[in-house]
Structures are given as structure tokens and as C-alpha cells.
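Page 47, continued from p. 46.
Same chain as before, 405 aa.
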Amino acid sequence: MRRSSALSLTAALAFGAIAPAQAAAAASAYAGTAADLDRAALRKAISVGPDDGAAGVVADVHKNGQRWRGTSGDITTGKPVSPDAHFRIGSISKPMEAVILLQLSAEGRVDLDQSIQHYLPGLLPENRFAEPISVRQLLNHTSGLPQDFEGSPAASADEAIERRLAYVSFDEVIEQTLRPVGRPGPGPRFRPGARQEYNSFGYRVAGKLIEELTRHPYQYEVTARILKPLKMRETRAAVPGRSTSVPAPYLPGYMSRSTGELVDVNVQGGLPASMTSTTGDLDRFISGLFDGRLLRPEQAAELFAVPKGSDGKPLPYADGSNCNTGPARGTACFSVGLMSVPLPDGSVLWGKTGSDLGYRSGVFASRDLNRRAVYAIGTSSSLGNGSQAVAQRLALAAFGDQVRD
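Result:
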């Protein structure tokens, strides 16, 4: 789980962590005009080879009213990939969890400044988590909570492949993280609100809170509040207690056993927030999120505000890097549910990446929605490291004209 979070963050930084001079030089290979999408450059960006660690790619790019959709076929089997291919979205579900809690806040059913200890008494061991942790701190990654299954031995690729069919509830993740069997439970990583560190475990607690407040399974709430209103008909939440396959047509994703054998991992169990979707549906989501169809202005403002300290400056990021570049390097870049990615020209993209076994994905947009990009990459190895290079090439091809020295 910790590896998954790290890979998600690395993939996100592919959209923004390029040095300006390097990005400008790379972008020159994709020379387009500010008004036009360079379709040849986009096709080149997602063309994958054996060194990319990617089995295939599907992408959907919008810019100034123009749209481009492209795919790269499954290089493992040679089969084509449909532009309507489904894939696992990983942590792109986190903004959806945030939206549900923001909606509940607007309905007066939850106070973002109230503590988790108030809403879920006894969930956090009092001897280790005495300081109150607010709902907002869960959502903007400033809670200081441990990471998923912190302290547990890292699973090998073979173990991850064998365990992929298991469905794990929010309660099970919380208990196995906070009250593990056979070893001491972890404590806070830092004081709540003192800094920022990407934290998936906080969203497991947030998912539990959604289910407690609504008395409905997460699947019901995300469908009723987001998928149906936005007509995201190709997006499905995990079925509680079951493993499910990615619907056809699907983007294949592979993991490699220690023997080198590639395993198609499209059938998985996952978490209550695990979901499959398409680039078209994720474009509907970020469009509906930014244009006001899901949130009132007061709640929508939370999407575009990184946490600040008492001095009015963005909080430090936990390890001094990983967020932002240039003068802002080492400071918070996550808001409630989203990540900000500043471009060298001063403009900002907002969005989220996702990482599941066999899949890397992302959705980013400018606030005015004139620039939007959704991509998914099926991996062809257990690490999936090549996905960062593919995402970086796509970003430069999509928005390269925004990059300058």
C-alpha cells in the first residue's frame, strides 16, 4: 500500500516536476500553437515500446475547445486498445470521497473542523492519538496519521499477485493498520496540522466516516451523489465482499512474477473506494467538479486551497520535497482531494493520479476547463516505473506551448 501511494505521487509529479529549461527543450519536439492540439505529437507521446514498462495507453486531451483521443495497443498481445477502454482508477477516487464529505458539510451533517475522535469515538487509540484530528486534515493530508499497514513487511510481486482478489473493507484496513497482530501499533507521524504528507490511510478513515454519517455503503453514496448526476455510466464502484473484473473493452494491465511470467491483473478485489472508469467519464467528473454541478462555491473553494500555517504560508511538505518545484519546492501542494501542479508559465493544473495493481492513471485540468487531460497506462511489469515517462511525454505534448524558460 505504501508503494502504491508513492507511485501515485511520482506519476502526479510527471505533470509538473520538470525543470523549466528541461521542459522547454523537451517541448520543442512537440511544437504546436497555443490554439491547436498537436495531434502528431500526442500520438508520438503515447506510443510505447518495451523500455516504457507499459502494455498500453489510453488518453483524452482537451484544449481550447479541441479534443484528441488516442490509444496505444497492447504490446504484450498485439491487440488494439479501444479509446473507450475501461481501467482501474486507484486514488482518483479520493476526490470523489472528498466531494461526498464536502456535500455533507453543505448539508450540515458534518463539520470539517470537528475532530474524527468526535464523529468516530474509539476508532483511534487514545493512548497514541490524543490530539484531535479534524475531518479537513484527513482530506488535505495534514492529519499525521500512519500510512496504510505501516510497519508491515512489504509484499513481494508474487504475493501481491496472489492477494489481488481479496476485498478489504474500510474497517479491516483501519484495524490492521492501527491494531496489528504481532507488533506494536504505529503512532502519529507528526502533529496534526503541522505539515503535509500524502496519506491514503486518512481516506480509509474518511470512507468509514461517510458510511457512518449516511448509514449507506460507500458504493451507494458515490453512485447517487456523483456517478448518476454526472451521467458517468461507464464508472463502477467495487462490489462489497467480491473481486470484480474490469468491464470490456478494457485496458490490459500486467504484473510480472519472479519467474518473469506476466499476469493480466484486471480481476481484483480492492477497497470500497476502488473503481473502474474510462477517460470520457473521468473528464465528465473533473468538468462537473470544476463547473459547480457537484459543489456550492463555499465547498468548491476547498478544492483549490492548500493548507497554510499560522504565518499564512503553505505548510512544509513532510520530507522537504515531493511537492512543487522551483521556489515553492518542499511546500504543500495538496488541497482537499486534489493536487496542484504549477506550470512554468505561472498557470496551474489541478487533479489527481491513481495507482492500482497493473494500472497508473491521472486526470488534470485548468480551473477554467480550457485545458484537460485524462490518461491511463496499463503496466507491463510489477513496478510500472515506465508510466512516469509516458505521462511526462503526454503532458509536454498536450500543454507544451505553456512551457518556457
